[in-house]
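User: Is it possible to get a 3D structure for a protein together with its bound compound? The compound here is zinc ion. I've pasted both below.
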Amino acid sequence: MPTSGTTIELIDDQFPKDDSAAGGVVDEVDLTEANILATGLNKKAPRIVNGFGSLMGSKEMVSVEFDKKGNEKKSNLDRLLEKDNQEKEAAKTRTHISEQPWTLNNWHQHLNWLNMVLVCGMPIVGWYFALSGKVPLHLNVFLFSVFYYAVGGVSITAGYHRLWSHRSYSAHWPLRLFYAVFGCASVEGSAKWWGHSHRIHHRYTDTLRDPYDARRGLWYSHMGWMLLKPNPKYKARADITDMTDDWTIRFQHRHYILLMLLTAFVIPTVICGYFFNDYMGGLIYAGFIRVFVIQQATFCINSMAHYIGTQPFDDRRTPRDNWITAIVTFGEGYHNFHHEFPTDYRNAIKWYQYDPTKVIIYLTSLVGLAYDLKRFSQNAIEEALIQQEQKKINQKKAKINWGPVLTDLPMWDKQTFLAKSKENKGLVIISGIVHDVSGYISEHPGGETLIKTALGKDATKAFSGGVYRHSNAAQNVLADMRVAVIKESKNSAIRMASKRGEVYETGKFF
Ligand SMILES: [Zn+2]
Ligand SMILES: [Zn+2]
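Assistant: Yes, that's possible. Here is the predicted structure of the complex:
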């Protein structure tokens, strides 16, 4: 049967001779052990007190802290197992709110009210003052808001995302401190929390454990995941000890509330008040409205970048490349590339694609603040592109009628062919395949005489250049006339078929 796989030739004897020692046993990776490493549970996770890092997220979903009281002697793994067992027991007796239908009595229990205030309440206040005309927008405040939007935004994309979550480059402490402080201006939680849920997103993309699971719909992956209480059943963990080893991350997490209030609201208010004499404009536009816009833009990465756009590198999962999302997110919109090559400091690889975050990382490296910028080799990128192109081509191939499938045809030896040729004068062998050209003789573009000389014979050489080198189209017309395969020449039949683009799996053939 033709399949969408690649033709596999019989290649056993193409390998070098096996020279390995006999009887060697190779251990397989222990999955439990490897998963413990992936979640960082083998290490002592520092407890960084604040808790407000769960801001905009669901602590149940991403919590990596452990209760110290009474548990000091237990290993992280023991604590985890104990906690998981307790949760399982508790789940038996009650149904989590996320599994219950919405009713007039319980709707408020479905919601994460802190996040409702931070991503819905604050914008309502901002837009009320802006749209009612109570606080008019002045040009200076507008320009400062745009500039400050970029400062907070790039701290998320170049800092939270590409530096900390993916370690796609390294940075010296002044730059890390800058991103840690001004990342707070975007009100997206602490880098520790953000990086942890982001690593889970990359590890479990499009599964129930993916915090922003795109399969649950545009609304859920945009804001729903944050506004609704998540099901603790699908809680996931990822190792972030490299992040918590960074003092700037610990400093930011400890003082998150203070830093957030200061950078998101106090600083823009004071700057607009001092320089433009417009304190209220600073608070409303450079504060509330700016935070709303940057939050929505960032949420688009989880929603739009998993919905609209192209998938040039791999289409097995939802991430997509899209220039519209790139524009609002400082270049984070080339999300199909990003999910394939997450530790590449670039998101866009073509010169005309918009990725200012990449440019900023490069510029900071020129002045010595950033270093060790990571890139995947162009060859690895081309490989992925071609594999995806090949997949598309194979899908198209599967829809095409390639003529009778070789494996469905009867197998004749040469004697049978000669016998059958006496009954049917229109039979001819080309590349080990018997064709019945009776109905085609008068239509043959090379004339009746030529085709008639081939009847009852093997015309492989004449067909493929000895007399006339037939085109692809001619070969395709011929393929429709297949009636049998010659046993002694089945290998040339396979070669002929795979040359045309037909795909057969070795092993299933004959
Ligand atoms: Zn994603
Ligand atoms: Zn990422």
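The chain has 22 helices and six strands. Confidence is low (pLDDT under 50) at residues 1-8, 49-54, 57-73.
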